[in-house]
Specification:
CATH architecture of the largest domain: Alpha-Beta Complex
Number of helices: 8
GO molecular function: catalytic activity; metal ion binding
CATH topology of the largest domain: Fumarylacetoacetate hydrolase, domain 2
Distance between the termini: 22 Å
Shape: globular
Pfam family, one: FAA_hydrolase
CATH class of the largest domain: Alpha Beta
InterPro entries: FAH (IPR051121), Fumarylacetoacetase-like_C (IPR011234), Fumarylacetoacetase_C_sf (IPR036663), Rv2993c-like_N (IPR018833)
Family: Belongs to the FAH family.
Strand content: 25-35%
Protein name: 2-dehydro-3-deoxy-D-arabinonate dehydratase
Length: 296
């Protein structure tokens, strides 16, 4: 089962449950924001009440976040990430120190309206030149700071910008098309051990596979609830929050994304996310337009 958002025939966003090849609306819940204001027990009860199902292949899925929801990221949480950041950076020590520090690296990635969904493009900056996807297990927390589910995140990153100076991290991470989420949220009560999930990344360029990698959330150095607690300590998230927990797959320095590359991330028991690379702001103007029309 996955919790999803999708468009009704009249264009309205609907909160639903996808089971196999069908999707059904959750009765009495009008938005993901409403859903993520519930406690985990209340949420489990709410999503058990669904209406008539329809085939999922005829549905346009939307990002699983709305309202005042936000996506945040934790950085340098895998040994591979620490090593890659040190390789590319002129200031290596900051990454080595944060990997073992009590305080995690946390940064805001995108408000709900900037998030792209499965099948939509992801972006790279025109002024970067060296960009990679970062496949990450994303933890979904309700407004009470409880973990209620998991999804797949692509935390797109400019290695060339961050490598010049760690203070450029916001520019390396926050840009049009820089954050993608899988269409569905797998409820936490259906994932037996989120610290033992395989993560696979495949990048295709035309007919060729130009990169692939595999890791496991067992290599994640920080506990998931500890990361959520650190995020909630100074902040309220009244409509819930999604926290991407860092990447354990980073291509070598001789690889960079190109326009048209197809990125597929699969996390066992959680889901799959596929996006095609686009360059610059233009391909993402629809995000602002659809927000104004209240379609997302």
């Amino acid at each position: 089962m996955h919790l999803v958002r999708y468009q009704s025939p009249d264009g309205r966003p609907v909160v639903g449950v996808q089971t196999g090849d069908t999707v059904a609306p959750v009765e009495g819940v009008g938005s993901f924001a409403e859903l993520l204001r519930l406690t985990v027990d209340e949420l489990q009860t709410a999503v058990a009440k669904v209406g008539e199902s329809v085939p999922a292949d005829g549905v346009r899925f939307l990002p699983p976040l709305d309202g005042r929801g936000e996506v945040w990221c934790a950085g340098v949480t895998y040994e591979r990430s620490r090593g890659a950041r040190m390789e590319e950076s002129a200031e290596q020590s900051v990454y080595d120190k944060v990997y073992t520090a009590d305080r995690p690296e946390l940064f805001q990635k995108a408000p709900a309206w900037r998030v792209v969904a499965d099948g939509e493009p992801v972006g790279i900056r025109v002024d970067s030149g060296h960009d990679v996807p970062e496949p990450e297990l994303a933890v979904v927390a309700n407004s009470h700071g409880e973990i209620v589910g998991f999804t797949v995140c692509n935390d797109m990153s400019s290695r060339s910008i961050e490598g010049v100076n760690p203070l450029y991290v916001p520019q390396a991470k926050l840009f049009a098309g820089g954050c993608a989420l899988a269409a569905g949220i797998r409820p936490a009560w259906e994932v037996a051990n989120p610290k033992d999930l395989t993560i696979d990344l495949v990048i295709r360029r035309g007919d060729d596979e130009v990169f692939s990698g595999t890791t496991s959330t067992s290599k994640l150095v920080r506990e998931l609830q500890v990361l959520i607690d650190a995020l909630f300590l100074p902040n309220d998230f009244p409509d819930g929050v999604i926290l991407a927990t860092g990447t354990g797959i980073v291509p070598e320095l001789d690889f960079a994304l190109a326009e048209g590359d197809v990125i597929t991330i699969t996390i066992a028991e959680v889901g799959t996310l596929t996006n095609t690379v686009a360059v610059g702001r233009g391909p993402f103007a629809f995000l602002a337009t659809e927000n104004l029309e209240e379609k997302r």
